[in-house]
Structure formats: C-alpha cells, structure tokens
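Aim 2 progress update. The chain analyzed this quarter is reproduced below.
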Amino acid sequence: MKLFVDVGNTAIKWANERELQSNRVHRASSQQIPESIDQAWLELAAPSEVHIASVRTSEISHRLSHWIAQHWQAKVRFSKTAQQELGVTAGYTTPSQLGVDRWLALLAAQQIGAGPKLVVDCGSATTVDGVDESGQHLGGLILPGLQLIGKCLELNTDLSFGESGLDLNGFATDTAAGVQSGAMLTHLCVVERLLQDLEQRCGKTAECIITGGNADSLSAHLSATHQVIPDLVLQGLALQSAQAE
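Predicted structure tokens:
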C-alpha cells in the first residue's frame, strides 16, 4: 500500500490509494512535525511506500523520514520537479526552482482533458500557473494567500483588526472587512486577468482549476467558469508514483 503525503506551509495532508480515490484526505498542522501526526499515523496500516511532496525545510523532511524509519518498514520517496513529465514541460529555466506542489498540481490538471488550463492553488501563498494545450507550462505568479495579506499588513503597519471571514464587500465599513475584501478582490483580479491572458495567447477557451485550503472561499466569488479539486497535489503525487513503477 502506498501513502501519499503533501506537506504545506500550514497543513500536512495524507491519504492512501483507496482513500484518495474516494476523496478521504486526512489533515493536521504542519507546524509541529512529527508531533502533529504522531497519533494519527500510529493508527494507520503500515504502508510499503511513502511518497512525499514537501515545500518545507530539509529539517522537516528529515523528521518525517526518521519517524517513518522508526515505525514502518517503508520506502520513502520525496517528489521533485522534472523538466518534463506526464505530458507537461516545465516553463522555468531552472525547473528545480518551480515548487513541487505547483508541479504536481499541473501534472494532475493535465490529465483532466485537452486544452489550456489555469491552475490556482490557494494556500498560505496563492500560486497561479498557466499551461497551453501542448502541455507547455507558460509560467505563473505567486502572491500572499488570502489570510497572509492581512498578516503582512498587521506586521508592517499600525493597523489593528481582528479576524474576519474571507468575504467580499466592495465598500467595506470596518478595517477587518476592508483588508479581507481587498485580499479577495486582489485574488479575483489576478485569476480573471491571467485566465483572459491565457485564452488570448492560446486562441481558445481555457479551463480554470482551483485547489488548496482556500479554494472554496475563492470559488464563491469567482465569476469565471471553473472547477474546484481540493487535493490536486496529492492526485499529482499519485500519478507520479504510478509512472515510476
């Protein structure tokens, strides 16, 4: 049995092959690894292989590898970005600089169907990547995530505001709502502009795919046609592991 693990800046997600097929994905904080996953992983059936995609430091990867070696007799494979894989060609001059989470999301999106695609991953940071109908990655953008924009303002200004929902009010009447609405509108403008640019560049309609922890929040306000696939990175990891067999 294979276990697929996505280690993000805020959350760690995991699922085995059967769970991933039925969209049953487990989550915990990635801030205190391995403590945050210790009890949950001890209750898992021991996998034969563990495939990991991580955007955290090498120290976090070492902690995970050490935990696995202590508790399971499993092969561990850390995913890496390739120059070309599963019909997708990296657009970065140095492919290793393209985050593995972005790469895996592109691999999974490419299998959905023909035509250009805009892949939006809404997490601690938000990434927006375009791929044309041939599978050529055209590049993309990185911006602070919906919550992180507010945190950046709090850290770098004298603004003080409490928690606010991820909502959109064009003319907000309090500071918290103004910050969150600004964050949401920024995301909407970026996605809609890049979708328009992608379609003009390719000369055909592009599919917009949204994933990540804040996907539903962005989806609720996005007027462009799109679909939400919550765990695209894990799906890409599973595809990559199958190819390696």
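The domain at 84-239 is CATH 3.30.420.40 (Nucleotidyltransferase; domain 5). The radius of gyration is 19 Å. These observations will guide the mutagenesis experiments scheduled for the next reporting period.
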